Amino acid sequence: MSFKKIKLTDIAKIHHVSVSTVSKALSGHSDIKLETKRKIIETAKKLNYVPDFYAKGLRLQKTFTIGVIIPDVLLYFNSTVLKGIIHTAKEMGYRVLLSESEHHYKDEKETIQKMMNSNVDGLLISINKESDNIDHILKASEHLPIVLFDKISDKIPLTKIVVDEEKGAFNAVEHLILQGRKRIVHIGGAKNSYSSAQRLEGYLKALKKYNIPIDLKLIYNCEEVTLDEGYKIAQILLYNNIGFNALFGVTDNVAIGAIKALKEKKFRIPKDIAVAGFSDSEKAMIIEPNLTSVSQSGLRMGKTAVKYLIEEINNPMDVRTPRTIELKTTLKIRKSSSIHR
Amino acid sequence: MSFKKIKLTDIAKIHHVSVSTVSKALSGHSDIKLETKRKIIETAKKLNYVPDFYAKGLRLQKTFTIGVIIPDVLLYFNSTVLKGIIHTAKEMGYRVLLSESEHHYKDEKETIQKMMNSNVDGLLISINKESDNIDHILKASEHLPIVLFDKISDKIPLTKIVVDEEKGAFNAVEHLILQGRKRIVHIGGAKNSYSSAQRLEGYLKALKKYNIPIDLKLIYNCEEVTLDEGYKIAQILLYNNIGFNALFGVTDNVAIGAIKALKEKKFRIPKDIAVAGFSDSEKAMIIEPNLTSVSQSGLRMGKTAVKYLIEEINNPMDVRTPRTIELKTTLKIRKSSSIHR
DNA sequence: TTACAGACAGAAAACGTTTTCGAAAATGTT
DNA sequence: AACATTTTCGAAAACGTTTTCTGTCTGTAA
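YS: structure for the whole thing
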């Protein structure tokens, strides 16, 4: 650790000027003579000078750091958004402090508190499960700018970046209908989840548009959107002899789990049962047959979230008008739903 | 933003004492009378006081922050390690600053520089591609503790956390041999990658142990370890009519890509060709048949890396003895390699 | 009594910046 | 030559901590 970080005083001594002069020169202040500026900037560059983040943060009360809180980095879509966030933040000169809420309300609350103490300039949050208790977020939002993304709650009056889930689901289901299917099962997610509700809405609207009666026996719910739950629910469907010729999963995972169960019972996909999922994960291209899925760009979402957050950081608005930005989805049609592919 | 962060002076005023007294009381200094301490601590708790991270960082020259640099959050194993890092860091009272090198030497270098300027207490790095140029890391390591994980270079004398790749590969190949296969293809990774070299070594050792002659025609390399490259190389193998009855992919991705090509040509797996991969990604359970794979615990790796880093941070050793910690792997045997499952 | 130790608290410096304010020097205007 | 203006720079305060040093007040031993 035999290393001396170089600071303003060092440069000041070299040129026999004051620290203030050096500081101003480096920040391009008009106070300083061009010639002096040039010299100072030159040696600063040569000595590889970089301002001390903590001194700067202390003085300016601004840290160029944004905090990111997500439930679980392992979820593929979360990783994608994170990638977008990291990239855009770097581009715009911000650092990112990352934390997981690990699906627990308590962790989320604590983490938010810690982030605030860390003097982050703003917070990017993907909410846990839609618990009814959102006070901690509301309270935090009085202290610093917060933008919500992906998993949100419509009860929180903050800027939100989401995917147009309803439209995405609608497109998927419409596609299934256009393949000639009318008995379409929907396996939905947790009941208090905003996303799940939106996707269910899309499903219902598509049926309505084509005058297909809604059969509640075709609508199921799972708590965790895992392979396993998809698998089990499909088994229940088969066991109960519910007649159906298509299935729309709230998630690729549940769709893929369902496919497994269907294949085990020798149903042909898509001939007997056409299947579609949501989120277009990598697995969609691995499962046989490849899964038709609603594709949402996490990169885009991450990028958008950062942009809006930084905008709010820079505009110290007293009255903030929360906006909801809906990102478009695209339907990736693959073999699981379409015989002609 | 109508909010006043509470600071030492506030508490000081309330109790008509000086800031120094408050500071000492809160840090449990023996200078302060027990009664005074009690009172101060109480109001601090009530007012939800938390020390300013930046003031503290500036004064103490320590930030309780570790920087993490990985090539790509989207790689599943990277995410797992990251999860382990986040969790353990939080547990030990550290924050994590995350950045991606995005597979570029330039980004890696710049990021390291930035992290150093950010006054992180230590750095956790998973190296890019094993470029020959590692000067930037060596140089940085003179300034602050660095621990390498997963993707490393044996040319860098630093503490490293890796998986016992050779042993893992050995086990996988031995398993294939014990299934009665002798013509085993190996699709390896980039030639200058340390991991790939280790896995190749394991492959060779297993063959040697069972007196199976090494046939160079069975050994291939790909630059990027993607589905696509695995797919293409398998096609080349088939096109050239190389006779083989097993395949060991350097990665689940290339193994799965290969399986795709093999299945297209109606080869039965594992009957005609047994396949194994490395890393036990989620996809291993999706592909049909499920892929036998070497499982490595990313969580464990992340946890270990953080622990060693913090140890180095706390022990300001002048002469650091670099250690290499090798984590054990386990072979997950699935249908792609074993008829009896 | 004096001397001294221990308990308790405050003043002030320091960490490395940025910025306000004012001073001095250079320039321009009569 | 006198004054006004602009250019160029520096002193010093401030951001919120921690810590060293100093000082006052007890009580106790000589």
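YS: worth flagging: The longest strand of chain B covers residues 65-70.
IM: good catch. Also Residues 17-21, 24, 30-33, 36, 55, 57-61 of chain B lie near DNA strand C (CB under 10 Å from a C1').
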